[in-house]
Amino acid sequence: MSKHTVRKSAIDTIAKVKPAGGAVDYLETDVRDVYSCNVFTDTIQRERLPKDIYKKLQATINSGKGLDSAIADSVAVAMRDWAIEGGATHYCHWFQPMTGSTAEKHDSFIEPDGGGVVMKFSGKDLVRGEPDASSFPSGGLRATFEARGYTAWDPSSSAFLLEGPNGVTLVIPTMFISWTGEALGAKTPLLRSDAAISNATLRLLKLFGNNEATRIASSLGAEQEYFLVDKHFALHRPDLTNCGRTLFGAKPPKGQELDDNYFGAIEERVIACMAEMEYELIKIGVPIKTRHNEVAPGQFELAPTFEASNIAADHQMITMEILRRVSDRHGFVCLFHEKPFAGVNGSGKHVNWSIGADVGGNLLNPGDNPHDNAQFIAILAACCRAVHNYAPLLRITAASAGNDHRLGANEAPPAIISIYLGAQLTDVLDTIESGKKSKAGKTKPLELGVSMLPKLPRDAGDRNRTSPFAFTGNKFEFRAVGSNQNPSAAITVINTIVAESIDYLCDELVKAAKTKTPTEAQLNKALQKVLPKIVKDFRPVIFNGDGYTQEWKDEAAKRGLPNLPTTPEALDYINKKDIVALFKKYGVFSKKELDSRKEIHLENYASILKIEADTTLVMARTMLLPAALKYQTQVAEAYISLKAAGIDSETQANILGDLAGTIDAFSASIDTLAAAIAHDAPAAAMKHACYMRDTVLAAMNECRELGDALETVCNDELWPIPSYNEMLFIR
Ligand code: ADP
Ligand code: MG
């Protein structure tokens, strides 16, 4: 067998693959019956729970307050019976530890009972789980010998049935908490931040005379980008298997330069896979809405309709899991890495965020009357102030080893956090700030609460894709978050910093109005007095231009906006004094929790770089170098044969010479990388992370460049790993 068997036989196999048949026939099945059919929904709860228990449970869910433990047993029985009728054999507490992904421990319902078994699931089983927490990252929150942590049921996020190839599992969304009460996962801080934004916003609404709303909730719509690569290729790439991204790979002749993939017709094999992903997701109540081809070849996007953040975040995490599973069934590997392929776009996760009141709806919706407009402008201004004052904190929520390859790479928002508002809103703010006529000269001086705002465009025309934080008509879209990241961190931070700004605004308004219960006229006057200064202070963060340009980087520096291009420098901010004070004030993170997160993220960053470096080394030494040497032998043999035949070919000599030069350089780069890896790394987490970035990653990049150069000259039949062309275009 020739050496190229692996790649050529993969192509031959894929050529014969037919799109899989549908998982569901929608001519037979009504999608409305499928939606949430595996969720312990409100309707199911009402049907199955005693009335008083149902009411208590709903009260818990709606208030966001603690659960009355007396009702847990009743709920557990109903949930168990419903789950067993749905085929469940196991239940699991499902949580989001600080690994960035999800974790689950399954327990069977069966309990031995005098020779047979009974199906048991008590209130205690529902409310609390005790996974051995010692192997999850805690960043020093919990010594390993004191392994106890527990998971606590989150009744606001519905339990659901997850179908597997051989059985069904009842999945219970939970928080992960240390024995001493610290948050070990992503959910607890998110819920705490939701309480913070609720309290602050209610306070503001009261100043505006809105006393009906009792609860404010943040909403999240997370757009997920991903790549699909045929397994026959992906499994032959140790870099994809180990790291989720390619560590070698020469640029293919065709990339994304024709712009022919974005919103292009979706191939049948892919759409079959997408349809099954969606089918699995809507069964568990994830409201999947949108699917399309993305910019890079082989890249796609899926987006749900927004929901309350806590639920949407859970749905987002299970979405990634389902995408992985279903793509595997269809012969694909699904890549969530932020930059799986050099030279083409990477993947993000746009986090769409807004706040809504139980009475009154979306608060980032400009209203139809002057009063609503004034409230909208006040909240918008608070959001802008928050982003301006806590930009590094937002940057942290998008910081990861993977996303470092994406942010600022002229395809994704830069690492400088700025806000896009669009021309019209910016003009409105300018008018407020100056207290004069707008620059455009069209609008009169804006009297908040009295005059009307100009009608704002709601459509997608006025878009700026290069902005990390864009106002898109009735919500903000935070575009820096990476495709592989849990969106909870971003939501937690946005909620908290906006809560702080809303509180600040309330304080200032009360001061200016000299009363805690201003009349409408007093409030409008106070707004007129307070807002100009706030706008003036946050004005530098507003940028409507092209965020990809060098000019913006220079301009941002002049404006004093922080530019934190890599993860370690961003993480340095996480436990700075003002950040600690902010989170403490709102009870979202304690100092200990922040310290632990810094430690964990830095360690994670260094570990990822170490795995990548080791994989680069192994691939270079055991796959690429041998292939290059074999090719060198072929060329040398050809040269010798020609010479023996009396032909002294200069071309042959040159090919051989150039090749030898590149191989020598490649070999030397391998040695440099090996030395960088073997070097005693600094012990302190920050220093270690920086060492990995500055020395090890740099050595990897050098090695890659030479490896890729060899790929472009080496005999294709000898090249041992699937090429970019194959992975991106052959399905
Ligand atoms: P795009 O043009 O950015 O693709 P869409 O308007 O289609 O944007 O919305 C993208 C995402 O934003 C969807 O998930 C959508 O549900 C979500 N979204 C819309 N309104 C809100 C809101 N009020 N809060 C949070 N997310 C929202
Ligand atoms: Mg979007």
Task: Please give the structural blueprint.
Layout: H1 5-16, H2 31-34, H3 42-48, H4 51-63, H5 72-85, E1 88-95, E2 103-108, E3 110-113, E4 116-119, H6 123-127, E5 128-129, E6 149-153, E7 160-164, E8 167-178, H7 187-207, E9 216-230, H8 231-234, H9 238-243, H10 268-283, E10 288-293, E11 299-304, E12 307-308, H11 309-329, E13 332-335, E14 349-357, E15 361-362, H12 370-389, H13 391-397, E16 419-420, H14 423-434, E17 469-471, E18 476-478, H15 488-513, H16 520-538, H17 550-559, H18 567-571, H19 577-585, H20 591-644, H21 650-678, H22 685-713, H23 724-729
Parallel strand pairs: 1-8, 16-17
Antiparallel strand pairs: 1-2, 3-4, 5-6, 6-8, 7-8, 9-11, 9-12, 9-13, 9-14, 10-11, 14-15, 14-18, 17-18
Bound molecules: adenosine-5'-diphosphate and magnesium ion.
Adenosine-5'-diphosphate binds next to β9, β11 and β14.
